[in-house]
UniProtKB/TrEMBL annotation, chain A:
<feature type="transmembrane region" description="Helical">
    <location>
        <begin position="172"/>
        <end position="193"/>
    </location>
</feature>
<feature type="transmembrane region" description="Helical">
    <location>
        <begin position="379"/>
        <end position="399"/>
    </location>
</feature>
<keyword id="KW-0813">Transport</keyword>
<feature type="transmembrane region" description="Helical">
    <location>
        <begin position="272"/>
        <end position="295"/>
    </location>
</feature>
<dbReference type="GO" id="GO:0055085">
    <property type="term" value="P:transmembrane transport"/>
</dbReference>
<keyword id="KW-0472">Membrane</keyword>
<feature type="transmembrane region" description="Helical">
    <location>
        <begin position="34"/>
        <end position="51"/>
    </location>
</feature>
<feature type="transmembrane region" description="Helical">
    <location>
        <begin position="112"/>
        <end position="135"/>
    </location>
</feature>
<feature type="transmembrane region" description="Helical">
    <location>
        <begin position="326"/>
        <end position="346"/>
    </location>
</feature>
TrEMBL record, chain B:
<protein>
    <submittedName>
        <fullName>Sugar ABC transporter permease</fullName>
    </submittedName>
</protein>
<dbReference type="InterPro" id="IPR000515">
    <property type="entry name" value="MetI-like"/>
</dbReference>
<dbReference type="GO" id="GO:0005886">
    <property type="term" value="C:plasma membrane"/>
</dbReference>
<dbReference type="GO" id="GO:0055085">
    <property type="term" value="P:transmembrane transport"/>
</dbReference>
<feature type="transmembrane region" description="Helical">
    <location>
        <begin position="239"/>
        <end position="261"/>
    </location>
</feature>
<feature type="transmembrane region" description="Helical">
    <location>
        <begin position="314"/>
        <end position="336"/>
    </location>
</feature>
<dbReference type="Pfam" id="PF00528">
    <property type="entry name" value="BPD_transp_1"/>
</dbReference>
<feature type="transmembrane region" description="Helical">
    <location>
        <begin position="372"/>
        <end position="393"/>
    </location>
</feature>
<feature type="transmembrane region" description="Helical">
    <location>
        <begin position="12"/>
        <end position="33"/>
    </location>
</feature>
């Protein structure tokens, strides 16, 4: 044991020293460079003390609370933390020498192992979630001016903000149109690929490749395909000059106009520009759906199909009554993942229509959040948006669970 | 209809649908690569050019010879004392002697390349030859050329196809971006131009360093936490685990602003810390590895414990080697996520030195304007490492993605 622990801790100490030196000589632009190490080591120390002296880890939680409070107040205590880190090193060494009784050893090592992840989660996930809620209650919180507590004012403004509703309805159409299309197309491809065909590897690679290419590059390529003058798509469809990414007319309105039906606002549907982005998105994510569904298909036992075949069932009947129900857990998983991911769509929209399109016809909630927070420096309003988005996703996920999960067949 | 015929028709249908789909899926890739070797004039055609001049092997030998004459056969160049000869066939050489010039870059007072190149135009079999000699002492990487041919001379054919042909009064104006390209210099002209137009080498370094560190650090942190959750009974385990489960509900957008503020207070904006540290702990990775550790038999660990192994030793000597498939899965996911991310690096970096490849590409899309050849070359470069990685570790990619869908 000692063979591991001592060199490991020595390396940590040296690393810490180097970090200090590098900040001293400004090699690294990070005055708080050593802080993480300190926090990471203070954890095991507290855990050790907790396991050793007090029941229930009281010291640990007290230490955590202190730290969270200090962070919330924006007060930093690097020297004290450095001292703590030193204590942590000694205690960790003592613990690592395996002189503890079994229960204490489990407590000590459990906390040591879990601490780095927990510390990072606390700092970068858990605390910020509450902080987002907190700053959404202020008026124009940013680095520039003073801000004051205004309660739910930001949410009230949000409720009356036409741009927010525009972004929300765009995002709604995006989710409603891309997620089912992706799953449906993915199922078709996966079922066909599962038919014991030749060249499975080649087909799978071709369908999968778009998924691992970066959205930024893929969006650039599609922007070029959609180019109004020299784009491939206009040549293919014989529509020269059609500016796909700058056409704000809703597709439902366009489709129903010849029938004399006039649609406007939300019911006009997503714009041509946004539909073009959706097509690109379905292309990008199809491979992911195919691979997941193919794995789901391959886990369905072959006996079911054999039995159905003996009973004289046709190909379509087998798909309808065996594949579809037994694939439902996978489909359900994809629907949930797809919903959460689609609701946060940003990259392809930002690359293909950096300004949010003509008349904000491609503005999504995530993009509106980005604009508010990092273009207009209104962190409070952006946080209110983020919190609202969180609530909407949560509610939709719960509804999806209630409604869809009843139809899911888990048993084979 | 008999069964065999029906079976055959079914097969044909399956292959037809799959192949049609595959063509649609693969087309953007072909179009990206094809455009990346086009000259601007080729790219901006009303009818698409399926096979650009630069990927036609017939032109490769000329490019090779011209490059060798200028300096090197692979990458070309124009070294002092070298002479490059370009042949030009015309239908009627009697119509008049063509004119040729090495163009200056726009708005430049003096250009050594243009001034130290001596141009002679001599009659040759079936037309003319243009002899360019580097009379100066400097080496140039490219040798652009503009040639005017009288329209009366009828049809013409240059040995190396020009990048652009324009009409200028009584002349055809032929433009080459490089008449001494060498094979690679010819084929990858847009790649070289894009590479020098923006600091792509730095972008790649930032991306690889960020993604690599995230993967290595993340693997260690996730392995430790997953092992503790799966195999150690410590006070507070359930509470911490519940906390981790709860964080999965938080969408990334909620964390953007608070984490940005925290990074600003730490003075970490525009540093590697901002790119790496917030993403080191991954709940997904911890869950994935926990499943792996749970599937190992408990007896293994009990036996090791009785034999005097410490938890530290059990983790790295027993559990870690047995969880390699899970580690590879998580590593691929973490690398893909870090390499392909745009929003986060866009927010926390400002200076060009800290741009990842995606942010760099996004900036390049704005700067490149209408030079779609260069833009597609840059896009190809940006996706190349991941695609290459996929071809080397195809099985792991597919298994990893498939595994992420199974609870």
């Amino acid at each position: 044991m000692r063979t591991y622990a001592f060199p490991g801790l020595l390396a940590l100490a040296v690393f810490s020293g180097l970090l200090h030196l590098s900040t001293q000589y400004q090699i690294v632009r990070a005055p708080m460079g050593a802080l993480f190490l300190a926090f990471a080591l203070a954890g095991p120390a507290a855990a050790y003390a907790a396991a050793r002296v007090l029941p229930g880890g009281v010291v640990t939680w007290a230490g955590l609370g202190l730290f969270a409070a200090a962070m919330a107040a924006g007060v930093w205590l690097p020297p004290a933390l450095d001292a703590l880190a030193l204590v942590g090193v000694f205690l960790a060494y003592a613990g690592s020498r395996d002189r503890l009784p079994e229960r204490d050893a489990a407590a000590f090592w459990g906390w040591v192992f879990v601490w780095p992840a927990l510390a990072l989660m606390l700092i970068w996930n858990i605390f910020p979630s509450f902080f987002a809620l907190w700053i959404s209650l202020f008026d124009r919180f940013n680095f520039i001016g003073e801000s004051r507590f205004v309660g739910l004012l930001n949410y009230e403004i949000l409720w009356r903000d036409p741009l927010f509703w525009r972004a929300l309805s765009n995002t709604f159409w995006y989710v409603v149109l891309t997620v089912p299309t992706g799953i449906l197309l993915g199922t078709v491809v996966a079922v066909l690929l599962n038919e014991r065909i030749r060249g499975l590897g080649l087909y799978r690679t071709i369908y999968f490749l778009p998924y691992i290419t970066a959205l930024t590059a893929a969006a650039a390529v599609w922007q070029w395909i959609y180019h109004p003058e020299f784009g491939f798509l206009n040549w293919l469809l014989g529509t020269p000059g059609l500016d796909w990414l700058h056409t704000p007319d809703g597709i439902f309105a366009l489709a129903l106009a010849p029938l004399g039906v006039q649609l406007s606002g939300f019911w006009a549907g997503p714009s041509v520009a946004f539909t073009a982005i959706m097509i690109m998105t379905v292309w990008h994510f199809l491979g992911y759906n195919v691979v997941i569904l193919l794995a789901g298909l391959q886990s369905i036992p072959a006996q079911y199909y054999e039995a159905a075949e003996l009973d004289g069932a046709g190909w379509w009947q087998m798909q309808r009554h065996i594949t579809w129900p037994l694939l439902s857990p996978t489909t359900f998983f994809l629907a949930i993942i797809g919903l959460i991911g689609a609701f946060q769509v940003f990259t392809q929209v930002y690359v293909m229509t950096p300004t949010g399109g003509v008349l904000n016809d491609t503005l999504t909630v995530a993009m509106y959040l980005y604009n508010k927070g990092f273009r207009d420096s209104d962190f409070s309003y952006a946080s209110a948006l983020a919190v609202t988005m969180f609530v909407i996703i949560l509610v939709l996920t719960l509804i999806q669970r209630r409604v869809l999960e009843r139809r899911v067949t888990y048993e084979h | 209809m008999n069964t065999r015929l029906r079976h055959l028709l079914g097969r044909i249908f399956i292959y037809a649908v799959l192949t049609a789909g595959a063509v649609v899926m693969a087309f953007p890739f072909y179009w990206m690569i094809a455009t990346s070797v086009k000259s601007p004039q080729e790219a901006q055609q009303a009818a698409p050019i399926w096979f650009p001049e630069r990927i036609q092997p017939a032109n490769w030998r000329t490019a090779w010879r011209l490059g060798a004459e200028g300096d090197r056969p692979w990458w070309g160049g124009f070294a002092p004392g070298r002479t490059v000869t370009l042949h030009l066939r015309v239908e009627d050489p009697g119509a008049g002697r063509p004119r040729a010039r090495v163009p200056k870059p726009p708005a430049v007072f003096s250009d050594p390349r243009s001034e130290s190149t001596r141009i002679r135009i001599e009659p040759a079999e079936g037309g003319w030859k243009i002899v360019l000699e580097n009379a100066g002492t400097q080496r140039f990487t490219t040798l652009p050329l503009v040639v005017w041919i009288p329209k009366d001379a009828g049809k013409f054919r240059a040995e190396l196809p020009p990048d652009a042909v324009r009409s200028q009064r009584g002349y055809w104006r032929l433009e080459w971006v490089n008449v001494s390209p060498g094979l690679f210099g010819y084929l990858f002209h847009n790649y070289r131009e894009a590479w020098h137009a923006a600091p792509f080498a730095r972008y790649f370094f930032v991306s690889f360093f960020t993604a690599g560190t995230q993967v290595l650090g993340g693997l260690i942190i996730a392995t430790m936490a997953a092992f503790a959750f799966a195999r150690i009974r410590f006070p507070g385990r359930e509470a911490v685990f519940l906390l981790f489960v709860a964080t999965m509900m938080i969408p990334g957008e909620v964390l953007l602003i608070p984490n940005y503020i925290l990074l600003a207070k730490l003075g970490w904006l525009d540093t590697f810390y901002a790119l790496i540290v917030p993403w080191l702990a991954s709940v997904f990775g911890i869950f994935l590895l926990r499943q792996f550790f749970l599937s190992l038999p408990q007896d293994l660990f009990d036996a090791a414990r009785i034999d005097g192994a410490s938890y530290w030793g059990m983790l790295w000597r027993i559990a870690f080697p047995l969880a390699v498939p899970g580690l590879v899965t998580y590593g691929i996911f973490a690398f893909l996520g870090a390499y392909n991310a745009l929003l986060w690096p866009l927010i926390v970096t400002q200076s060009p030195e800290m741009r990842t490849i995606q942010v760099g590409l996004q900036a390049f899309i704005g700067e490149a304007g209408s030079d779609y050849g260069q833009l597609m070359a840059a896009s190809t470069m940006a996706i190349l490492p991941i695609v290459l990685g996929y071809f080397f570790a195809q099985r792991h990619f597919i298994q990893g993605i498939a595994r992420s869908g199974i609870k």
